[in-house]
Amino acid sequence: MDNAGNNDTMMRSLSLGLLRRYDIQYDPKVHRLRCQGHIINLAAKAFLFVTDNEKLELDDPGVHNVTLKHIEAWRKKGPLGKIHNFVVFIQRSVQRSQKFLTISHNRKLARDNDTRWSSWYNMLRVALNLRDAIDGYFNKWMELDCAGDELSSEDWIILEKIKSFLEKLKMTTKALESSFATLDNVLLAMDFVLAQFEAGKEAYIDDPIMAPMYNSGWAKLDKYYRLTDESPAYVAAIVLHPSHKWHYIQENWKKEWAESSKKLMETLWNDYKPVESPLPLCEVPSTTTNEFLNWRNKHLQPSLVTDEYERYCNSERVYGFTSALAWWLEETQQKNYPNLSKMAVDILSIPAMSAEPERLFSGAKITITDRRNRLGSDVVEALECLKSWFGIRELQGDVL
């Protein structure tokens, strides 16, 4: 879910309803998992607009009556505001758009919008590619309305820095919105983005424009990073990835963070593990007339009872597979870790972002046509699940 407050309210109401109607204990904080794409969106907007609460964006990107007040307010934002003003200025007029196309060899400018931070990245990427055309427009057709938005060499350098940083966020988002990105990627992605913010804070500590941007973005991301402590699922997803286990956390996190994470993990495992977890038994002949063989088989059976989770953590890390979820669904893991594998499948089935579930929901309109408008909700649910499962090629065959 995204980070809107009404989702917190919904989780609390769900918890209360389950308790009252079914006597089920459901912790709303533990089960509150946040869409990583929305977190990156909030951090990116905090980076772009610092902590300013002014709503300068117009609700309709195509509106033409931009007031002088809007222009001046954006101009105060520095290079970002200037390039925004210039793009709006060009797109407000058919004549100006045609003049720009003649100087840009028919390449159009891209416009930012109020809903997607990536639109700012796209606007900067296109503008930087069309820098000569933009500078040429100011030199050839300087007009009073945009005279204060002419971009200096220093402004272009700042825009390049901003674009380069946003590009890292864009790549991270792209990786997490795929059909196969699961919860084990969330904390790794947050660590990566936080590292980029921290590197920027250090590199531009005395920069009057860039320093506040990096500080603001870092503070927003750090806020949501701390909220991941409320659910053990994030840590569990990393630990249950057979290539990571505890290695990533022990190598990259502070000791006290790792210790508290281990306690969270043990609490979650307690919900899955049985009273005793015997070692998987070796296959032996069921009957034999040879007394020696009977004696040998009896003494070869493991009598030691061990914890599945401990055995998993103490075993070597595993590489060379395409999906952690697919690895846990293999028959070998199902036999060796019958209870831990259930926990792993529950955790690693959770997507890192809501992008893939939203795509699935949107695709339901293809299922519910005018001729099939009487399908029950249970049938539609089953059809959409099957459609999703058959699309996951990595899991076809053994699982389906």
Automatic annotation (TrEMBL):
Q: Where is the signal peptide?
A: none
Q: What is its main location?
A: nucleus
Q: Which domain of life is it from?
A: Eukaryota
Q: Name one Pfam family in it.
A: Dimer_Tnp_hAT
Record keywords: Metal-binding, Nucleus, Zinc, Zinc-finger
GO molecular function per UniProt: protein dimerization activity; zinc ion binding
InterPro entries named in the record: HATC_C_dom, RNaseH-like_sf, ZnF_BED_domain_contain
Q: Where in the cell is it found?
A: Nucleus
Q: Which residues form the HAT C-terminal dimerisation domain?
A: 323-390
Q: Record's Gene Ontology CC terms?
A: nucleus
**What's this protein's name?**
HAT C-terminal dimerisation domain-containing protein
